From TrEMBL:
Residues 1-204 form the PPM-type phosphatase domain. This is Phosphatase 2C-like domain-containing protein. SUPFAM superfamilies: PP2C-like. One of its GO terms (molecular function) is protein serine/threonine phosphatase activity.
Length: 240
């Protein structure tokens, strides 16, 4: 399993900061977090990445981090999570029980209260509005070599790129480690939002067939080239 992350540094300031030589009571953390996890098991001692073995995949998800599978036969991305946002019909129905009002921010992103996510760890002050830490849990049986790899990522990647772009970038790489690095670097290259970009790529039994299904990695090549051109043009404009 390969884990690559890039994030801007943050600092504790204001009332939560500790001044040198001054002892203060700790301030309770008021923030929250999202999470996506994947558990893979096999019926025998054979590792799950062996091309001849089947496996069971269980995913648990809270928030807007994301998990994708890449089909070895079709080359298509298969999402295993949905974003827990107010725009989700399931989440919207759930939150209506709390008489929650939704608003759209200046970027057009729907929010309730001060949050964009309807499920998260922490965010204690928002629990009364319906924010839940209960994950969505799913189980999926994987046939031998059915899928090439699995990708887990933060919204600094999934909020910028389409699902198919994400798996196509990984397909071009020689190793899962390289795929995770390329995902993070490409997301940082084509956006100025500066959100946390984290990626985990896990090899599955169909890894060696990752470029054979469908259009291989060529299906989104033009779109990715366009993103690069737009980012470069924007960078030039800001320097003028």
């Amino acid at each position: 399993m390969d884990f690559i992350t890039r994030t801007k540094p943050w600092f504790l300031t204001g009332e939560g900061a500790l001044q040198e030589g001054v002892s203060k009571k700790p301030t309770p953390f008021k923030g929250g977090s999202t999470a996506s996890i994947a558990l893979i098991s096999t019926p025998t001692a054979t590792p799950f990445w062996d091309p001849k073995t089947s496996a069971t995949l269980i995913t648990a998800h809270i928030g807007d981090t994301r998990i994708l599978l890449s089909s070895a036969s079709t080359g298509l991305a298969l999402p295993l999570t949905t974003n827990h946002h107010p725009s989700s019909p399931t989440e919207s129905r759930r939150l209506r029980r709390y008489a929650t009002a939704f608003v759209s921010d200046s970027f057009g992103e729907e929010r309730f209260g001060v949050l964009a996510n309807t499920r998260s760890f922490g965010d204690v002050s928002q629990k009364r509005l319906g924010v839940s830490a209960e994950p969505e849990v799913y189980r999926r049986e994987l046939e031998p070599s059915e899928y090439a790899f699995i990708v887990l990522m933060s919204d600094g990647i999934s909020g910028i790129l389409t699902d198919q772009e994400i798996v196509d970038i990984v397909k071009e790489c020689r190793t899962p480690d390289e795929g995770a690095r390329e995902l993070v670097e490409f997301a940082e290259e084509v956006t100025t939002e500066g959100d946390n970009a984290t990626a985990v790529v896990v090899r599955l039994g169909g890894w060696d067939q990752r470029t054979e299904g469908g259009e291989g990695f060529m299906g989104t090549k033009d779109l990715r080239a366009w993103r690069r051109d737009e980012a470069l043009a924007g960078s030039r404009g800001r320097r003028m």
